[in-house]
Write a structure and sequence with these properties.
By secondary structure, the chain is mainly beta. The protein has a single domain, classed as Beta Barrel (Porin). 10% of the residues lie in helices and 56% in strands. It is built from 3 helices and 15 strands. The chain has a 14-stranded antiparallel beta barrel with strand order 1-2-3-4-5-6-7-9-10-11-12-13-14-15. The longest helix has 20 residues. The N and C termini lie far apart (56 Å).
């Protein structure tokens, strides 16, 4: 019975890794949409600027964060026993560059609730604005994976780099990233895994007439070509207070498509500049079923 449980959980880990990446069947650094803002926009947020969520989507976007902020959240996957949690702290450039610190957790349980796999990624991002329209950033990631199953554990590291061109023609943002550069993941089996580099690019707009923004992105993996296309839109029902978000993501190599939606609520405060609530759901042709994500955050000067 124990052997059967181990086989089931290993199969689950490999399936989740392959679905999350959209292309390669790897379990290290799985690329789930980590937080609800970008997830609601179909993950098409590589050109997101001035938002602490940029710490996940493009290190270059961190250069345009204003003030300081924290955000914490989690998610629930309806179809599979997967749980994630994340934390972000970010601060604006104070002369030496902007910075962000993130912690991500993914937990995976067998259906009997016994066998488990846990993956934690700790990352630090440094970013610098070059003038008023260009931001560059570097993100160093440390992986710690553990399991109740023998040898299904690992440690590793990788680097992401990104650049963001801010407010081109006063309204458009253009972003590019390269992820998992110089990666090295050492499994307890003795195998060392070097991940293919992931390339992403995209376009986004600042709110048009303070109401409407659109986002588009593409994703590809080294040696595998284009793997994902994403589009998203954000409509501010009440400017700077309440927004609705919509998104689509086409995983080309897996021939699956997902739809997403969500909302954001911003409430001004006396002590802090504001606090915010983000929620998203995602549904479509994937093994995880409907996914719900929720986050709370604070921003201050």
């Amino acid at each position: 019975m124990k052997k059967i449980k181990e086989i089931l959980v290993v199969s689950l880990i490999l399936s989740v890794g392959g679905w999350a990446q959209g292309a390669s069947y790897r379990t290290a650094f799985p690329d789930f949409p980590p937080e609800p803002y970008g997830a609601a926009l179909g993950g098409a947020t590589v050109a997101l600027a001035g938002n602490i969520s940029s710490a996940y989507w493009n290190p270059g976007g961190v250069a345009f964060i204003e003030g300081k902020g924290v955000m914490a959240g989690g998610s629930k996957f309806q179809g599979w026993p997967i749980y994630t949690a994340n934390f972000i702290y970010a601060q604006a450039d104070q002369g030496y560059g902007a910075a962000a610190f993130t912690v991500d957790h993914m937990g995976l349980k067998a259906y009997d609730g016994e066998a488990k796999y846990q993956e934690n990624v700790i990352a630090y991002t440094w970013a610098k604005p070059l003038g008023s329209q260009i931001g560059i950033g570097v993100k160093a990631k440390l992986l710690i994976a553990s399991s109740d199953i023998q040898n299904v554990s690992a440690n590793g590291m990788a680097v992401d780099v990104g650049v963001l061109f801010h407010r081109i023609f006063g309204i458009a943002n253009l972003g590019f990233t390269a992820k998992d550069i110089a990666s090295s993941v050492k499994w307890k089996t003795g195998r060392t895994e070097h991940l293919p580099i992931v390339f992403e690019g995209g376009l986004g707009t600042e709110p048009i007439f303070d109401r409407f923004s659109i986002f588009m992105s593409f994703r590809g993996e080294q040696g595998m070509g284009m793997s994902d296309l994403g589009v998203g839109a954000e409509l501010w029902i009440v400017p700077d207070r309440l927004s609705l978000r919509f998104g689509l993501n086409d995983r080309l190599l897996n021939n699956t498509m997902s739809m997403a939606g969500g909302l954001g609520l911003i409430i001004p405060m006396d002590i802090f500049s504001r606090y915010f609530v983000n929620y998203s759901f995602e549904m479509g042709q994937n093994i995880a079923g409907i996914q719900h994500r929720f986050a709370l955050g604070l921003v201050w000067e």
